[in-house]
Design brief:
heterodimer; A: about 375 residues; alpha/beta; Rossmann fold; Rna Polymerase Sigma Factor, Chain: A; 2 domains; eight-stranded mixed sheet; B: about 200 residues; 8 strands; about 35% helix; globular
């Protein structure tokens, strides 16, 4: 897997980046992928921010895992985010494990992988690192930026930190500050990893092993939270996994158990346990209200970006209410904001699925923004 | 009704911010944007309508005007427009108060229950009136609080809400409504359009 990681697109960011925690990183790799073609006016670029366990391989085939990209439903030729028309960019977040600087990288001071010596990063650090990619690509202003879940949080931060860098923005199923419930669920995931003896305070990396059991449980927690109660009941109910009756054992009798085990153990093949700790921490620390003294309204003050906020009715992780709070703040700051709640039983996962209403809304908005962006440039 | 849109548009000044509450598929917002140099926003409950607005590139917030107007700050719009929906709210008085808080002025259009055809239907047939402007029957109408131009006129007077202009519409004809012609206009207007606040 590591040899494959050497062949992916990487930007060597030479400009030192002072992190929120006080430490500075420099000469660090930022792995990214692009789809479609950047036009000569450089005004068809769309930046996608990925979620907690995502990566830069948005669509097509992920060259590392050989699986489909995580947002193949929305991005690609003829899709809602049409790569025949638009130039789509996505970077792996710092702290991640798909080629960007993360806890698996070698610490120049010790010549060993960082492990827990990796600095604690924030959503703002991630976003600032990605801004250097736009500089590198020569894109002054994006047509649009989007992302769901943690991707949406990065996007809100991006808009607050760089108010003039994108013409439009679509934060999806996210929040302007991580809720107590979400911090608790992240803590559950972290505790599962740290309770695995293989984790060994993050030093497993030196022994070239992975705390598989802990990491798999962490992923199972996530998967439960991505579904809705109704969706789960409809999908699994009390159905048994390829058997006629109970086994009177602790094997996966129920389909839902089998599903969780499968998702959990598939995940350990492609993700790093320490990265989960770091990235989930960054999410917990995210609080735009705290960052800006006047609260959320202040964060979005003097925004020219045109927003579309999308939430899903059955999402209990990033609820409609949390998404609406963003709309209210944008309204109060006088920003141009649209909002749509998609009615679905599929929970937080909806943004990754083939949800026709969602994809139609996404497409309509982006296409209408392209016309406006072109007109504005002409004026 | 295009005439209604035109009358509303004529009430608005250029270079202003307008919120269209219950904006539907965005037809009125589109019309106003073409007629005037204004910035429009919409609030709409129905998901299909919201999608259509987004498709047209019109900024729209999905939400319920009955319960979610609190999200808009005081006096944040020059005009708040409410086209033929006041009568459909559970609590029109509360909504009206919110509209006056959000907008420096408020434009309201109502299907006039005082229109002579409406009155005669009830008088001669003893049935709830079904007309072009009031196409629903009693059991499926969204209109909970029907009122006449005179009712809304008197309501504004009672609540000390400043009436800036009232226009009566009957097909293509429009006329200014004042206190001295209220009785007759209330009889012959299908639609009343109020500029208040």
């Amino acid at each position: 897997m590591n040899s494959k990681l050497e062949n992916i697109k990487k930007l060597d960011v030479s400009k030192p980046l002072k992190l929120d925690c006080g430490k500075t990183i420099n000469n660090f790799p930022l792995a990214y992928e692009t789809y479609g073609k950047l036009n000569s006016n450089k005004n068809n670029a769309i930046l996608v921010f990925h979620a907690l366990t995502g990566d830069q391989f948005v669509t097509g085939t992920n060259p590392i895992t050989n699986k489909e990209g995580w947002w193949v439903t929305a991005v690609g030729p003829g899709k809602a985010i049409d790569t025949n028309k638009y130039f789509v960019i996505c970077a792996n977040v710092i702290g991640g494990c798909m080629g960007s600087l993360g806890p698996r990288n070698i610490n120049p001071e010790t010549k060993q992988p960082y492990g827990l010596d990796f600095p604690v990063i924030t959503i703002k650090d991630m976003v600032r690192a990605q801004e250097s990619l736009l500089e590198h690509l020569g894109i002054k202003k994006l047509l649009c930026a989007t992302g769901g879940s943690m991707g949406g949080m990065q996007l809100l931060q991006f808009c607050a930190t760089f108010p003039d860098r994108t013409f439009s923005a679509i934060p999806i199923a996210c929040s302007s500050s991580h809720s107590a419930q979400n911090i608790a669920l992240n803590e559950l995931a972290r505790q599962a990893i740290m309770a695995d003896p293989v984790w060994d305070k993050g030093k497993y990396i030196l022994k070239n092993v992975q705390p598989k059991n802990g990491l798999a449980v962490a992923r199972m927690v996530g998967h439960i939270s991505y579904l809705s109660e109704k969706g789960m009941q409809e999908k699994f109910g009390r159905k048994l996994q390829e058997k006629a009756d109970y086994e009177f054992s602790f094997n996966a009798d129920f389909q839902v158990e089998s599903y969780l085990r499968h998702q959990g153990y598939a995940f350990v093949e492609r993700f790093d346990a320490n990265s989960v700790l770091y990235i989930s921490r960054a999410m917990d620390y995210f609080d735009l209200t705290k960052q800006f003294k006047g609260g959320l309204v202040e964060a979005f003050k003097s925004q020219k970006t045109k927003f579309l906020i999308i939430s899903f009715s059955s999402d209990w992780l990033y609820t409609t209410k949390e998404n609406k709070d963003i709309v209210i703040a944008l309204n109060a700051s006088g920003a141009d904001v649209s909002y749509s709640e998609i009615i679905t039983d599929k929970g937080h996962d909806s943004f990754l699925l083939d949800e026709p209403d969602f994809l139609k809304t996404l497409k309509s908005f982006i296409d209408s923004m392209q016309d406006k962006f072109n007109n504005e440039k002409r004026i | 009704m295009k005439k209604e849109f035109k009358v509303i548009s004529d009430l608005l000044h250029d270079n202003t911010r307008v919120l269209d509450v219950g904006c539907g598929d965005g037809s009125l917002m589109n019309f106003l944007k073409e007629e005037k140099n204004i910035e429009v926003r919409g609030l709409e409950l129905n998901q299909d309508n919201v999608q259509q607005c987004i498709h047209k590139g019109l900024p729209v917030i999905q939400g319920n005007a009955e319960t979610e107007l609190h999200q808009f700050p005081d006096q944040s719009f020059d005009y708040v427009v409410l086209s033929q929906t006041l009568q459909a709210f559970y609590n029109p008085e509360k909504v009206l108060k919110e509209l006056l808080r959000i907008g420096k002025s408020v434009v309201i259009s109502i299907p006039n229950f005082g229109y002579w055809k409406v009155r005669t239907k009830l008088l001669f047939f003893g049935k709830m009136p079904v007309t072009k402007t009031l196409p629903n029957t009693w059991y499926n109408t969204p209109n909970l609080h029907m009122c006449s131009i005179k009712d809304l006129f008197n309501f504004c007077d009672e609540k000390k809400i400043k009436i800036k202009r009232v226009v009566g519409v009957n097909e293509d004809k429009t006329s200014l409504i004042k206190k001295n012609n209220l009785e007759i206009k209330n009889l012959f207007s299908k639609l009343g359009i109020f500029l208040i606040g």
